[in-house]
DNA sequence: TTGTATGCGTTATCAG
DNA sequence: CTGATAACGCATACAA
């Protein structure tokens, strides 16, 4: 029996005040006198009253809801990062009175149709995109139609980075890898190798750059580094082979950093766990197997994304930065020989 | 510049009819004359009009939104099933004009607080719970407060199964495992072993029962079966050890079924891929590694869950079954020696 | 078949 | 500081 929900009127009647006073207690408690407020609050508690979400949205003209796309291929070893991000977004959103609604889309065109559906119906007042690419039609559409949005991942177009209309938050992979190298060296490693993705992906190139920076600072020249870095497509087997190649070419390598936990796992298997390996994403796999990894701090990312959305709400007047780079955190773990695990 | 959204009045004016007629075109197209309807539809298209979600919700007194909890530990090898379920739920929900909203909760008590927040605010008109246990305080609370909900997973209490107030949909693990065994045998296997979880979990016991049924039907007696089934806690290493134990005790075993892909992966590693192994959940891991698995058909589960919610909406009068058992589907894959993959 | 009037629950405006 | 009144956009009962 879904009992009829109490309304402001019910509260007002019980407290012996007008509806408006109840509304004030809720929205601007400061302007209502102490004893009155207490009486109203008691009535609210007694009735278990909550503002009716739809009524409030209709009146305020804001949905207080953000939409996030749920990818079809949620699985996989790295999909967990998006899962964690989504979780953080929901949690931080709730603290700010924001709901998270999901939608799905088969492709970019389909997604734009969803934008239209959700925006034109005023069901949502902002979108969060989890990954974008150069010339992404989705961000173009959103900008063109004045739709509030923020992306997790910086735009990779040359000029887009500074586009004041494109709000984004990203994790600084370069810094993360640099710190991973430094931590490895501070723990005794000297020659730290790197396994990254083939160049061309912005994310991957940044991570590799972090390795180069750190190793340069440690006195390694370009020639030397050329034999210490490998490119491999995402995959455990691929990572394993890259590690084997690397160690064959440069046996003095005594530690490895990889652009992903997947590659790192491959490297770990290749070396039998005898070399320290640092992955990227700090996935459950890294945690379970027990190897080090660079954590993206999705919680901070989510908070920053919501900050930016609030800012875009307060018009473009803010003038503040339209983006935020989060420094990741290196999680160091001591791991034993990995063969125990798979044999 | 979020242009002002068109309303029914705008459409009515453009089409030269009253607001009511527009509303009729939208909600009961049958009762409006052909030419009028076309004129209104043209106006709708021209303005890009969409009903204002909040206004409609306020008026109709239904949120057209269901809430799903997003687990904190989304990762893991089997978390992917819930991900896929969620994806299916969003997709099927959209077809029925339902939105999916997320919430998080640290524990059952916290979750009940969320129920209260979302229900009392009329933000949501039903909940979907992804897993329940015996004496679950959440379902008790929901029933007690007349909140519409459906669970993915049957209630494991003795009397709860038939409780007409508890709507649930589940996958028939018993049938799934039985069919897996039959398929293995039809492909030449004779002695099919089983690796399941320690007894006590309803889900696990059902899966084991399916194996027993199939093997009994194939002529194996209890005594024989006792040496062909093993219990192991969830985990790759655990599955591997169980498989080794099993094969040592009963070398004639020529195929294995496991209660999860995790256990199956362990078994696969133990046997070096020389024995056919069937897992459960058809996770990305099974797909990637290439071993057989029982697929939960989350898409059907999602559709059934929404069906049930619609039914509960139409009061308890329906009298129809308050639950649905989905038959899973066995996905057979030929796999080669697995050592190539991990070494 | 179409139009008119009313209210869903909330908040904003403005008068007291 | 408090209370009356209007309006957000839509859908329904009822009248035309």
General description of the model:
The structure is a homodimer of 343-residue chains. Chain A is α/β, with parallel strands linked by helices and 343 residues long. Helices cover 48% and strands 15% of the residues of chain A. In chain A, the strands form two sheets. Chain A has a six-stranded parallel beta sheet with strand order 2-1-3-4-5-11, with helices on both faces. A six-stranded mixed beta sheet of chain A has the order 7-6-8-9-10-12, with helices on both faces. The longest helix of chain A is centred in the N-terminal third of the chain and has 17 residues, at 79-95. Mean pLDDT of chain A is 90; it is low at 339-343. The interface between A and B is large, with 54 and 55 residues. Chain A binds a DNA duplex (16 and 16 nucleotides) through residues 5, 7-9, 17-21, 23-24, 26-27, 31-33, 36, 51-52, 54-61, 122.
Tell me the domain tally of chain A.
2
Multimeric organization: homodimer
Total number of helical segments of chain A? 15
Strand/helix succession of chain A: HHHHEHEHEHEEHEHHEHEHEHEHEEH
Strand order, biggest sheet of chain A? Answer: 2-1-3-4-5-11
Q: Judging from the principal axes of the Cα atoms, what is the shape of chain A?
A: elongated
Largest sheet of chain A: 6 strands, parallel
Task: Summarize the largest interface: chains and residue counts.
Answer: A-B, 54 and 55 residues
Radius of gyration of chain A: 25 Å
CATH topology of the largest domain in chain A: Rossmann fold
- Fraction of residues in β-strands of chain A: 5-15%
What class do helices, strands and sheet pairing of chain A give?
A: alpha/beta
């Amino acid at each position: 029996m879904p009992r009829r929900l109490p309304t402001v009127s019910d509260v007002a009647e019980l407290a012996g005040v007008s509806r408006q006073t109840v509304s004030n207690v809720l929205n601007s408690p400061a302007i209502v006198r102490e004893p009155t407020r207490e009486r109203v609050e008691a009535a609210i508690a007694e009735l278990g009253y909550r503002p009716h979400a739809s009524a409030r949205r209709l009146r305020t003209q804001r949905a207080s809801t953000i939409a996030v796309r749920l990818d079809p291929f949620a699985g996989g070893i790295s999909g967990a990062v998006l899962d964690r991000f989504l979780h953080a977004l929901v949690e931080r959103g709730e603290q700010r009175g924001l709901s998270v609604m999901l939608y799905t889309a088969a492709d970019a065109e389909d997604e734009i149709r969803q934008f239209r559906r959700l925006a034109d119906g005023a069901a949502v007042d902002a979108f969060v995109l989890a990954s974008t690419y150069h010339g992404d039609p989705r961000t173009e559409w959103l900008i063109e139609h004045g739709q509030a949005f923020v992306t997790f991942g910086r735009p990779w177009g040359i000029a887009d980075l500074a586009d004041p209309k494109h709000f984004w938050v990203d994790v600084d992979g370069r810094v993360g890898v640099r710190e991973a190298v430094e931590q490895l060296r501070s723990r005794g490693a000297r020659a730290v190798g790197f396994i990254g993705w083939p160049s061309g992906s912005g994310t991957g190139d940044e991570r590799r750059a972090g390795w180069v920076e750190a190793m340069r600072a440690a006195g390694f020249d370009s020639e030397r580094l050329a034999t210490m870095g490998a490119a491999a497509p995402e995959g455990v087997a691929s990572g394993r082979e890259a590690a084997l190649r690397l160690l064959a070419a440069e046996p003095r390598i005594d530690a490895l950093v990889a652009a992903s936990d997947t590659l790192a796992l491959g490297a770990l298997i290749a070396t039998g766990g005898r070399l320290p390996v640092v992955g990227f994403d700090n996935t459950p796999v890294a945690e379970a197997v027990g190897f080090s990894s660079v954590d993206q701090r999705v919680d901070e990312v989510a908070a920053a994304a919501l900050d930016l959305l609030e800012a875009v709400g307060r018009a473009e007047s803010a003038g503040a930065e339209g983006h935020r780079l989060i420094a990741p955190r290196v999680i160091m773990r001591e791991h034993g020989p990995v063969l125990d695990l798979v044999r």
